Amino acid sequence: MKKLLLKNIKWYIVIFICSTLIWSFIFNNITAPKKHEKIDIFITANVVDKDAITYKINNNNLKQITITNCGENDEYYSATLETIGIISSDILIVTDDLVLTEGATTSFIELEESYMKQFNINLNDFELVYVNETPYAIVVYDESKNINLLQDYVTFDNKNEVYCIVINNISVHIGKYASAENSTLIAFDVIYNLLYK
């Protein structure tokens, strides 16, 4: 019996490792938050109080809030913006230069006044960034106009830049603008909580 056990031990180890990996994979897929249960935010700044922002925007429907920040002067800023910001973030806080580029209308959703009012966001309360007379962003920092809506949470690096908040069109949290089936409206709640509360 002992010889048989020693002879087959490698198969027992292989089966044990495989079953452990399979059960780990299954458990992780069951417990991991779904795309519509998490939100990703990208902020163009080096100094960000992530805990305070998370507390401020916390929503009972969210299981995970990920905030990525990177300053413009960081050598990896462009790569971080393109890979994490544009490709995977739901909400971005970026310079108005980025919003005013040609690709803005394909990367970000327009801020329709009637749609935003459903979430108690009155666009008349804010300075907006327009592309072809259509609002795409809300200004959160402009030193020349004495605007600093996120002063308790974010210290922007370049005082001569205008920073604004935009909603990525790939987000599943943008209601009628989303192409996903399980679309939610959390992006608008997050913006409301950031700007009004």
Secondary structure layout:
Blueprint: H1 2-31, E1 38-43, E2 47-48, H2 50-57, E3 64-69, H3 77-88, E4 91-95, H4 96-99, H5 104-107, H6 113-117, E5 128-131, E6 134-142, E7 147-148, E8 154-155, E9 162-167, H7 186-196
Parallel strand pairs: 1-3, 1-4
Antiparallel strand pairs: 2-8, 4-9, 5-6, 6-7, 6-9
| CATH fold-type name of the largest domain | D-Maltodextrin-Binding Protein, domain 2
- By secondary-structure content and strand pairing, the structural class works out as alpha+beta
The total of helices stands at 7
**C-alpha termini separation:** 71 Å
Overall number of strands? 9
Amount of beta strand: 15-25%
Rounded average pLDDT: 83
The CATH superfamily label of the largest domain reads: Periplasmic binding protein-like II
Sheet with the most strands, sense and barrel status: 7 strands, mixed
Radius of gyration: 22 Å
Shape: elongated
Estimate the helix proportion, in percent: 25-40%
**How many discrete structural domains?**
2
Helix/strand order: HEEHEHEHHHEEEEEH
**Weakly predicted, low-confidence segments:** none
- Which architecture name of the largest domain does CATH use? 3-Layer(aba) Sandwich
CATH class of the largest domain, please?
A: Alpha Beta
